[in-house]
Amino acid sequence: MRSIVYYAGPLTRRREADMTGNVITLHGRRATRRRLPDEVASYVRELIISGEVRAGEFLRIEPIAEAVGVSNTPVREGMLALQSEGFVQLVPRRGFVVAPFTQQDIRDLFWTQAHLAAELAARAAEKITEERLTRLETLLAKHEEAIAAGDEEHIADLGHAFHREINLAADSHRLTLLLNAAVQHVPNRFYATIEGQVVASRHEHPLLLEALRVGDANEAGALMRQHISAGADHLVDALEERGLWSRLGSAS
To answer: Which of 62, 78, 126, 179 makes a 20 to 30 Å CA pair with 11?
Structure first.
């Protein structure tokens, strides 16, 4: 097994908002900043899922701290969180090492998201307000504009916002928290870089909106489950094209 050195580039992207933390402004917008260990965990997950680090490679604390812009303490806390999620393993007296990551792991993550999100969409269809429907329409229009402009950052942001509006419309706080925990396992920025996912969203988001508008809970749930489940295939295909598992298979 070998260690790897990281560069500071990836985390210069905007940090996506979650449901807790301190309010900050990013790119002129009001957003919610994650706790520092959560930012570390998100950064390392991205390295692992993108294939920038391989199973068996040691993750050095200092380069990660420099890349994220934090001290060593939140890095250790973030790594311990990733250990509990199965992304890394702690080797006594040696540090954290990347755990094996398979196609089935991705499918399992998306299966969990799909079923939770489907239930939320079904509940949203029964409770959604005209005001929230109008916000969803606006988000769809802006999403189209971002796709036309090739703006990957805003494509990801607007897709995330569309789903968030639906989740909030369900008025099921505990279930939304469970979904949020599952979603954290797959970096949001990947959705905008996967062509199949963007094409699917352009077709399926309007169908979801129509199901919500007419209050069809069964249709909204089914569409959401299919939409998210298909995301697993898109991501697996994209990572196979990048040679992730061939590299993992050749790692010692």
So the answer is: 179
Q: Is the pLDDT of residue 9 over 50?
A: no
Gap between the Cα atoms of 114 and 177, Å rounded: 14
Where does CATH 1.10.10.10 sit in the chain?
Answer: 3-101
- The verdict on domain 103-241 having CATH code 3.40.50.150 is no
pLDDT per residue as tens digits for the range 190-217: 555 666 677 788 899 999 999 999 999 9
pTM: 0.75
Helix (H, G, I), strand (E, B) or coil at 251: coil
Taking residues 80-91, report their average pLDDT: 93
As a whole number of angstroms, the distance between CA 250 and CA 252 comes to 6
Q: How far apart are CA 92 and CA 114, in angstroms?
A: 37
Angle between helices 130-149 and 152-169 (to 10 degrees): 160
Q: Where in the chain is the domain with CATH 1.20.120.530?
A: 103-241
C-alpha 204/C-alpha 131 separation (Å) is: 21
